[in-house]
Amino acid sequence: MTILIRHTDTHPIYEQIARQIKNAIICGELAENSPLPSIRNLAKDLQVSVITTKRAYDELEKDGYIVTVPAKGCFVAAGNRQAFEQQVYAELKTKMKEASILARQAGITTAELKHILDEVWEELT
Question: In sequence order, what are the beta bridge partners of 73?
Answer without folding.
Answer: 69
